[in-house]
Design goal:
7-stranded mixed beta sheet
Length: 189
C-alpha cells in the first residue's frame, strides 16, 4: 500500500474510501498528510503539531483515499473541555487535493468528524478559516456553523480569520464566555 501525494485524478470507475486515521500506520500516512496540508493551508505546521493532534485524537481524524490508497483529503480534529466549560470539538485542519474539490469530499470528511464528536457528547464544535477562503466558509455554513468572531491578523501570513461554531446541544451557546463573541461581526448568510 502506498500513499502518494501526487496521485492522478479519479476516473469515474474509481471510488474513494473514507478511513479513520490509524496511528499504527503513521509512517505510511503522516508524510502525505503533511504534504497535502502544507500545500493548501497558509500555516507552516511542524511535525510536532501534527503529532499533537494525531497521537491524542487520531480517532477523530479521517482520510479520503482513492482506489490506489493515495491520499485525496484529510480532516484533523480534537475534542476536549474548553476553559472548564463546554466539551468543545475542534476542526484543526481540512484539506482536499485541488483536482478533487467540488465533489463533496470535504463535506463528507467534516461530517464524519462532526458525527464522532457528537457521539462523544460534544457540546459544540469550533474552527477557524481565513476570511478570504469563501469556499470553506460556505461549506461550514451549509453544515450549520455560525460565525462567532473575527480574529484580526490571526495567521502568520497576516490574514484575518473567522471563528465558526456549531452548537450541537441545546443551551450550548449559554456555556460560552462573553469574550468568545464579537458583536461587530456581520451575520452569517
Amino acid at each position: 500500500m502506498s500513499v502518494q501525494p501526487g496521485a492522478l485524478p479519479l476516473r469515474p470507475s474509481e471510488s474513494l474510501r473514507y478511513v479513520q486515521y490509524d496511528g499504527n500506520k503513521e509512517k505510511l500516512y503522516l508524510s502525505a498528510i503533511r504534504q497535502l496540508i502544507s500545500k493548501d493551508l497558509s500555516e507552516p505546521y511542524s511535525i510536532y503539531v501534527y503529532r499533537y493532534f494525531l497521537y491524542q485524537w487520531g480517532d477523530l481524524c479521517f482520510m479520503a483515499l482513492d482506489a490506489h490508497d493515495n491520499l485525496v483529503g484529510v480532516v484533523i480534529s480534537k475534542l476536549e473541555p474548553h476553559r472548564d466549560g463546554p466539551l468543545r470539538g475542534y476542526i484543526a485542519m481540512l484539506a482536499v487535493r485541488e483536482e478533487h474539490r467540488g465533489k463533496g469530499i470535504a463535506t463528507k470528511l467534516v461530517r464524519m468528524a462532526i458525527d464522532i464528536m457528537i457521539e462523544r457528547e460534544a457540546d459544540e464544535i469550533a474552527l477557524e478559516t481565513e476570511v478570504t477562503n469563501t469556499a470553506a466558509m460556505k461549506l461550514y455554513e451549509r453544515l450549520g456553523f455560525l460565525r462567532s468572531k473575527r480574529l484580526h491578523r490571526y495567521y502568520l501570513n497576516g490574514n484575518s480569520a473567522f471563528r465558526f461554531v456549531l452548537f450541537v446541544k441545546e443551551g450550548a451557546a449559554t456555556l460560552q464566555y462573553e469574550e468568545d463573541y464579537d458583536a461587530d461581526l456581520p451575520p452569517s448568510s
